[in-house]
Amino acid sequence: MSDLHGLAAARLRADGQRYTANRRAVLETLAAAERPPSIPQLLAARPDLAASSLYRNLAVLERAGIVHRIVTNDEFARFELAEDLTGHHHHRICTTCGAVDDFTLSTRLEAELERALGRVASRSGFKANGHRLDLVGTCARCS
Fold first, then answer.
1. How many angstroms separate the CA atoms of 75 and 96, rounded?
2. What is the reported pTM?
């Protein structure tokens, strides 16, 4: 966790921002979450944070490359720590309830996916530096 705080402070400084107590609280809440939470879920977990402050801090943290926003089809985006801070993973997104769960692929399957996406990119002259995969459907709770 101390590495996370050090990296966050450095990224915020590079963006001309400070690493405040509220930003630390947001990051600690995201780090402890089982799955990417929505703003209402973050507020329920941290009632000491004002909604307006949470919105502002998430925007700053996202701009600094510390937090990643996951857009679903319900009214609330979900938030998680940036992938380079947590490790490469993908998402299952429920189109009914908007829940987002992380999953990883085997090393072999991830390598095959990288090769296939590399071929797609090279055909058009696109220079890929990574990928994100969202599996969209209905979760077990909603089906």
1. 11
2. 0.85
